[in-house]
Amino acid sequence: MASAFSDVLSTRAIQHHHKVAWSSQGLIAYAIDSDDSPSVSGNLFFTWMECPDGKHWHLALPTSYRLNNTIEKAQNARALYKPGREIPNLKYLQFSNTGWDLFCADQNGHISILVTGIKRVDVDYTQLSPPPLTPVEFTRSSINNCVLFYSDPPKADNENNQVVTMKWLNIEKSCIINSPAIKVQQTKQKMVLSGAAAKLGAASDDSSGFYFQYNTQTTKPFGVTHPVGSKQACIALRKNGELCLIYQEEHGIEFRSVTTKLDIGPYAINDASIGFTRDGKIIIAAYIEREQNIRFFEAEIDWSFIKVAAKIIQEQPGYKAPEDQRIPPKINISNLFEKSVGSNLQGLVFEKVLIISPTFATTSKMDILMQYSADKKFTNSDSKTVLIRYSLDSIRTSQSISKSFKNMASKKGLDTTIVSGISYTLNKVQQLLFNDKILSIDSFSGDTQLCFVMGDGSIKPIDRTDFKFINNPYSKSLSQANDENLIPNSIQSLFDAGFEFPRIGKQFQYCTISSNMCAYVYLPIDSKRLELSCLTTDNIHESYYNKKKGLMMTTAVAVAFKHTNACYNAHFTEDLIATVRNEMSFLPQKANDSYCYRVMVSIIQECHRALNLNIDITNEQSESMTRNQPLQRLLSLQLALGTSENWSRTKSGKIALALINLRYIITSEVYVINTVYQNVNRFSKKGIPDFGANLKARQECVLSVLGLVRWSLDYMAMIGQELLAFVEAYRKNDSETITKLLKESIAIPLIVGKIPRAFLLTAIMTNKRMLSFIQKLLEKSDPSLMSIAMKENSSAPFKVIKDIFYENDSSALFKSAGTKTARALLSLPTLEAYYSLSSMVDSLPISFSAFEKFIGETDAPLRNMKLDQLTSLAMEQQIVCQGFIVKNFITTVKDICTIFEKTVLSSKESNETELGKFKTPLLGLSNSTMTNLPYDQRKHGVIIPLTDTENALKQLNQQIKRQLYGDLLFDTLRKQLKKPEEKLRKCIRCGSISFKDDELILVTSVFSYIHSPVFQHYQRQCICGGNWADI
Q1: In what order do the strands lie in the sheet with 968-971?
Q2: Average pLDDT, the chain
């Protein structure tokens, strides 16, 4: 296809490639020139993928910033724009390997480094009594917040100061490498026990007896790294040959810089690239147009005191190098060789150079790519491109000495084997011809895969192993193949399952691809709004859906591999989730609803296998599962796949939501108990008086999690309500109602499943521990108040607490101001916590102790079911991942209901009538259960390419209204109702709304101040794993 770009536009797209960057944490940064859009006051914009309604995915409305030595947020770009307040255009943006640090360089060469997802603390510590010994300056925050951490000293505006290339250094920590999934043939001796290809797996019929084996390996850090594993550094090259190292020291978060100069004579660098050798050297290729050659340099960083400190810090974390030893690092430069590119090659002229560093594979070498484009002096075609691939080979100097020289040296008594140093040679490996322009080349997955963005709008992936394009194995051109089963021998991306990037249908200024290689964004010509697209399977031939086997299995493995890779590398997964959701929306038309549902289930099953997670747990493993990170990531994926329009959810989605909340509540309550306990002990051990301010902060810390306790108690009530419906149906012997309840109920899977049941038991025990802990705090603080709490008639204080916390009637406290309870509440919040927790338990329509007994008695018969290992695991996956109750459990369900009736309903403290009427809207589990297929048959998919501003604001308002109860807003993180007067934030994945609370800091090193330590862990991310974004 002819190029869609003119020569001028393609040159512009190549030059503007670095004006957009997509972080591995999901944040997209892009620049718009003020010349192109004079009405825009900002020069830096942030956006991200988000789900606005439970079904669709689009780019969030951008957050704009003005970056020029300082940074300020422009809430309303047009309103803040003032003629004369000129800001420089940004030319280079690049996120660090962690995804949080952003390198920015403007048209004048001014470098800035921003750290995203944090916020400067605006707290007057002098108002705290006493103030913390170590004031905290920054705290984690929403994804669209950032702080300027480094800014170049002022320089005179000069075009030669512009940055031509930069590269972030690798992280000094072990790397988890996810090797390609390998196809294995099942035999009687080697049967797969888990995953989609297992005997009861959703894709077992499609796998043709094969399954996939996943392998990971941990490697030492390689390439150039900062000596301290938690610190960042980058290296940048300017047109004038100035090489800058911008780095953090062994402690602190500020960046510093040192510079040196490359030997380029009186010329300027027109293009350059930086790469890292395996042994820690920096290779720089600098193209000088005036000379028509590329100069190669080697740079090595002498880290000085930082390297010494890094070793000591491993034994003494608080060590800081003395001032007299703090000599700044320096960069040592060596000239290597020059490569002429001036001779005309088939009517082409040199355009770009790109260095691709070696991968983790020991056989991998550094690639040097030289790009040539059509020269109009020799051809009428403006779209022809030749890419020449070289390898940079290194040999020790002693090995390069010829045999004759070695003999001469030997006669003179010289030993050539001790000659030090390394020499490099450039060897041509491959030449690729394209009848189109290459606009950009980006590397992914540890440089193991590349993506070429072409002038015709196509995006072509390349496997670095053989440097060949990855073709669609299920394309229409291969549909005549005789193979009935077409499963690849290895899988390492969605491309192996027939996914392809759709062609960009518009001329664009620049384009970038997500770190998971699942989506891309681009800026069309004459536009200031990015557009979004994701991988599709439009070119898969229809025969693979209904005649040939292998596609379902391959799809499940490909998604599982990418999901696992994202988990190991701590990358965001919104792009992967949106891609899968988009594919699910089209499958009913390509195949049928049943096929679509099997694909979804097989993906979840295979993700469990890829992460090596076994949910068929023993009693001993129960507690550890609340801290299991793979389980958290898998539940988050299950929740996302089980959610649809207007945030309605399938049984699978509701079960995932329930377990995510239970896990969060259990760990949060335990964390609070441990934190407060350590705080109390810290005072007693040091013999320091426990002053009032700290006492109150400690008590507020306990109060902060009472909303979580309330949620878990409501959860028990919800389980009881559904079981009551079963009991009534069994009393009437109503088989039709029982069948319907089994289909819709989530209570049965949440009791029958081993992990859900373990979580529920742990939550009950944690609540009891919390109540006991608060009682001990009361006794320690003031035994007389504890006697008030225990002796006074309980109905009055419970009424006060209910009015204050549940009805939000603060006047209730003052109406009862004359009572001992009211005075105690005002003076001691711990008593407030005790009454609150006690009243919650008291207000339950079922007996707390009886329910605990019921779960305990239910546990034994369920675990005593005689099932083989394969069947047991498969049934657990069906229960937890689908909410499906197999026939083996039908009798057990009736037994469970019988136990419930005998232990809970027959208890004097339970009220069967009240239980039936008890409302639990704050759980988020009470909306009507959808069918197991949450995707309607629409032809437009779930991806919205261009976000409609008006509609996006409307959907945001609907999100907020969804969590309004009267005039109060439910905070889904804290599980509390508050007046919506504070600043809000939303989860970009699950749609939760929460109040911002990033001014409240936990100072762990200080014994004088604690506040809400739990929520500090969730300042950046929601409990579902999605990022928060300020509204």
Answers
A1: 964-965, 968-971, 976-978
A2: 84
Highest mean pLDDT among 47-51, 322-326, 666-670: 47-51
Tell me how far apart the alpha carbons of residues 33 and 108 are, in angstroms, rounded to a whole number. 13
Cα 263 to its chain centre, rounded Å, is: 42
How do residues 952-984 score in pLDDT, each as one tens digit? 999 999 999 999 998 899 999 999 998 887 789
How many Cα neighbours within 13 Å face the side chain of 991? 28
Question: DSSP per residue over 351-362, as a string?
Answer: EEEEEE---SST
DSSP string across 402-465: -HHHHHHHHHTT--GGG---EEEEEEEEEEEEESS-EEEEEEETTTTEEEEEETTS-EEEEETT
SS3 category, 70: strand
Instruction: Please tell me the distance from the alpha carbon of residue 17 to that of residue 945, in angstroms, as a whole number.
Output: 20
Mean pLDDT of 928-937: 47
Q: Rounded to whole angstroms, how far apart are CA atoms 991 and 416?
A: 68
Percent of the chain at pLDDT > 90 equals 54
8 A C-beta contact, residue 808 and residue 969? no
8 A C-beta contact, residue 949 and residue 986? no
pLDDT value of residue 9 = 64
The helix/strand/coil state of 627 is helix
Select, from the ranges 157-171, 391-405, 808-822, the one with the highest average predicted confidence (pLDDT).
157-171
pLDDT band at 429 (very low <50, low <70, confident <90, very high): very high
- Taking phi over 0 as left and psi of -120 to 50 as alpha, with beta for the rest, 970 belongs to beta
**What tens digit of pLDDT does each residue of 618-641 get?**
877 877 888 899 999 999 999 999
- Return the structure tokens found at 985: 């934030």
Q: 935 falls in which pLDDT band (50, 70, 90)?
A: very low
Q: Closest by alpha carbon to 856, among 896, 889, 912?
A: 896
Q: What share of the chain is helix, strand, coil (3-state, %, to 5)?
A: 35, 25, 40
pLDDT digits 0-9 by tens, 44-91: 999 999 999 999 999 999 999 999 888 888 754 444 444 445 789 999
Phi, psi of 669 (to 5 degrees): -65, -45
C-alpha to C-alpha distances, 799 to 275, 706, 795, 822, 836, nearest whole angstrom? 69, 17, 6, 11, 10
What separation in angstroms does the CA of 28 have from each of 47, 53, 395?
5, 21, 41
Q: How far apart are CA 375 and CA 384, in angstroms?
A: 9
Which residue type occupies 370? M
Separation CA 834–CA 746 (nearest Å): 32
State how far the Cα of 869 lies from the Cα of 113, in Å rounded to an integer: 53
Whether residue 806 is predicted with pLDDT greater than 50 in this model: the reply is no
Distance CA 989, CA 986 (A): 9
Longest pairwise C-alpha distance within the chain: 108
Question: Phi, psi at residue 437, to the nearest 5°?
Answer: -85, 140
428/341 Cα distance (integer angstroms) = 14
Helix (H, G, I), strand (E, B) or coil at 494: helix
**CA 640 – CA 574 distance, rounded (Å):** 9
The Cα–Cα gap between 491 and 560 comes to 10
Go through the chain and tell me how many residues it has. Answer: 1031
- What is the C-alpha end-to-end distance of the chain, expressed in Å? 44
Amino acid symbol at 709: V
* 974 touches 707 (CB < 8 A): yes
Predicted confidence (pLDDT) at residue 934 exceeds the cutoff of 50: no
Residue pointed to by tokens 């793979």 = 630
Cα 611 from Cα 803, distance rounded (Å)? 47
Segments in 285-339 forming alpha helices (H): 305-313
What is the full DSSP assignment across 896-940? HHHHHIIIIITSTT--HHHHHH---GGGS--SPP--S------SS
Angle 829-843/820-827 helices, nearest 10 degrees? 120
SS3 730: helix
Cα 805 off chain centre by? 35
Contact predicate 628/613, CB 8 Å: yes
